[in-house]
Specification:
With 142 residues, this protein is α+β, with helices and mostly antiparallel strands. The chain contains 3 helices and 5 strands.
Length: 142
């Protein structure tokens, strides 16, 4: 599934049951801590919940979760054996928030077709934090 985004990578086949959402969040939380991701962990966990839920509800077979990343960027991929491509719907209580949340929180997302089905992926980046002290820049007299 996908390309390597950073030095850390987790891959796990999840059971084909709704409790996999909790398991995926727990695995992802550990992955984010281990790779030192400096972005908002709760955003990544929400994205994981949405992608795993979509795979369980609309996909086929047990989902495969992959999280790869480093301090500044993380890539989340959820694959399943289905071939139907996710379609954005009007967000709200009737259809959920799904892909709308993905589009709002991620720098990019997409779908890759594989021989064994599809992979829905997204990437998130840690917010840029400018230096607050002139001393952080050599030669600025700080």
């Amino acid at each position: 599934m996908g390309s390597d985004t950073g030095p850390y990578q987790l891959e796990s086949r999840l059971p084909e049951e709704m409790s996999s959402i909790t398991l995926a969040r727990r695995l992802t939380r550990r992955a984010l801590a281990e790779c030192g991701y400096g972005g908002y962990h709760e955003d990544v966990l929400l994205v994981v919940s949405e992608l795993v839920t979509n795979a369980l509800v609309h996909g086929e077979g047990p989902p495969l979760l992959r999280v790869s990343g480093d301090r500044v960027r993380v890539r989340v991929e959820v694959g399943d054996a289905g071939v139907d491509v996710p379609e954005p719907r009007e967000p709200g209580p009737a259809h959920g928030w799904g892909l709308h949340v993905i589009k709002l929180l991620c720098s990019g997302w997409g779908v890759a077709h594989k021989d064994e089905g599809k992979v829905v992926w997204c990437e998130l980046g840690a917010p840029f934090a400018p230096a607050t002290s002139p001393a952080a820049f050599p030669g600025t007299g700080g």
